[in-house]
Every structure is written in structure tokens, then in C-alpha cells.
Design a protein that fits this description.
This protein has 251 residues and is an alpha+beta fold. It has 9 helices and 12 strands. The protein has 2 domains: 92 residues, no CATH class; 145 residues, Gcn5-related N-acetyltransferase (GNAT) (Aminopeptidase, 3-Layer(aba) Sandwich). β8 and β9 form a beta hairpin. It is globular. GO terms for molecular function: acyltransferase activity, transferring groups other than amino-acyl groups. Keywords: Ribonucleoprotein, Ribosomal protein.
Length: 251
């Protein structure tokens, strides 16, 4: 059963995988774990237990050296943020963790969803980030030790209309506890509330799960970090509110 702790570990693994897959790196500074994602020139601090000057100062200095345009931090909702506030971080939109089995009853979408990274329309950072779906297939190229959390299986799904127009995409990663963690689920504004997002969710949930387990009636368990705008979607999909976390940005 997923917990806030396992959800946080899964999100850390996702950011680390995204960093390495796009030519970045992961590093630590005095109890602070960082992921440098060069595709978006973003430095991410991942759930520090004790974010103090000794860990923040060298990490932020490295971010400056790398040319980070955005520096953000994810922390537990119960963790103190004094050190982060003193360093200039401010709270952004609160995240809500959702978990559970997707509802088996859902209105089918009149389109197609496919797993894979064949997305000719993807450009810039979007195109580079598709590489994260191949990272687990070639662990030696990643430069990480075997068993590293960032090397867990990742799949990408795209949603297209029957005319072939790309209208949505999402990623899924095998989480620390064995659940399927969803990331980056997005649908074009003029195609929302038509079933494309739900179709992506179900396609990834079933594509990432052992078919034999499904045949025995075991539905896939999902985890997702929702923004205020997406929380309603995850709840409508049959997932329960697991808890909340904090997302901070250096101003």
C-alpha cells in the first residue's frame, strides 16, 4: 500500500531519471539531494530532511555554475522550511498525492493511445525528455549503479485523434513500492473532459502491469502527484487523496 514516504521516494526517482536521461546529473551536498535537468535548465532539491546552509549553499552555487534558470524544492508537508525560506525559497502551488486503483467503469475515448516515444511533433525539451523512457533499458549508458531508483522502468504514452492529431501525453514509472507512478499527464485544452486523459491513465496502468496479474483480477495500483488543477481528475478516476506535500521555488 502506498504511503506519503513511498510517493516522495518515487518522485525523487523520477526527477533523478529525468536528469540523467537528458544529460544532467544527480549529486548531494550535506544531506541535500539534487537533480540537474539541463533540458529545462532546472535544478531540483529532493525532499531534504534538514535543509540548512551547509547543504544549500554549495548546491545553489553548483546551480549557478550550471546556468540554472529555475531552482525548486520538494519537501514533506510536515518538514520545517526555515532554512529554505532563509535561502530565498517561497511556497508555490501545493501538491496533493493521490493513490488507488483506476475505476474499471469509464467512458471510452474516441481516439487512439499508444505506448512508445515515436512523437515526431516533439521539439526542444519535450523531445529530449522522451529519452527517459529508454534509460532503464541501457543502465550502463546511464552511468548509475545497478539497482539505482532512477533505473526503474519508464514508459511514455501519447494520445491522438482518429485523424492523427497529437492531443495528449503522459509518463509512468515503476515506483519504489511496486505501484505505477504517473507523471507529466497533459491534454490539449480543447480536448479536455472528453476522455483522453483517462485513456492515457488506463493505457499506462495496464501497459506497466503484469498481464497475468490482471487476469487474476489484481487491478494496478497508481500514484500521482496532482496540482490544484488536476486533483479533481485523479479523484474522478477512482484514486483517493493520500496526503499533501510542499513545492517551493527560489525567487
Amino acid at each position: 500500500m502506498p504511503t506519503i514516504g513511498s510517493a516522495q521516494k518515487s518522485l525523487s526517482a523520477w526527477h533523478q531519471a529525468m536528469a540523467v536521461a537528458t544529460g544532467g546529473k544527480v549529486f548531494t551536498t550535506h544531506e541535500c539531494s539534487w537533480a540537474w535537468q539541463p533540458a529545462r535548465r532546472r535544478l531540483v532539491l529532493l525532499f531534504p530532511e534538514n535543509a540548512n546552509e551547509a547543504g544549500l549553499r554549495p548546491g545553489l552555487a553548483e546551480g549557478t555554475r550550471l546556468g540554472a534558470r529555475r531552482i525548486e524544492a520538494w519537501i514533506n508537508s510536515g518538514a520545517g522550511g526555515t532554512g529554505l525560506h532563509q535561502a530565498g525559497f517561497r511556497d508555490a502551488s501545493q501538491i496533493s498525492w493521490h493513490a488507488g486503483n483506476p475505476s474499471p467503469q469509464w467512458e471510452r475515448w474516441n481516439g487512439r493511445v499508444r505506448l512508445g516515444i515515436d512523437v515526431p511533433e516533439a521539439q526542444g525539451a519535450d523531445a529530449l525528455e522522451l529519452k527517459v523512457a529508454n534509460l532503464w533499458r541501457d543502465p550502463k549508458a546511464a552511468g548509475l549503479t545497478a539497482g539505482h531508483a532512477a533505473l526503474r522502468r519508464v514508459e511514455h504514452a501519447s494520445a491522438r485523434t482518429l485523424d492523427g492529431d497529437l492531443v495528449g501525453r503522459a509518463f509512468a514509472q515503476q515506483s519504489i513500492g511496486g505501484e505505477v507512478a504517473l507523471y507529466g499527464l497533459a491534454v490539449a485544452s480543447d480536448h479536455r473532459r472528453q476522455g483522453a486523459g483517462t485513456a492515457l491513465l488506463h493505457a499506462l496502468a495496464h501497459g506497466m502491469t503484469n498481464p497475468l496479474a490482471l487476469a487474476e483480477g489484481a487491478a494496478p495500483e497508481l500514484i500521482a502527484a496532482g496540482s490544484p488543477g488536476s486533483a479533481e481528475f485523479f479523484e474522478a478516476s477512482g484514486m483517493r487523496l493520500l496526503g499533501r506535500g510542499r513545492h517551493m521555488v527560489l525567487r
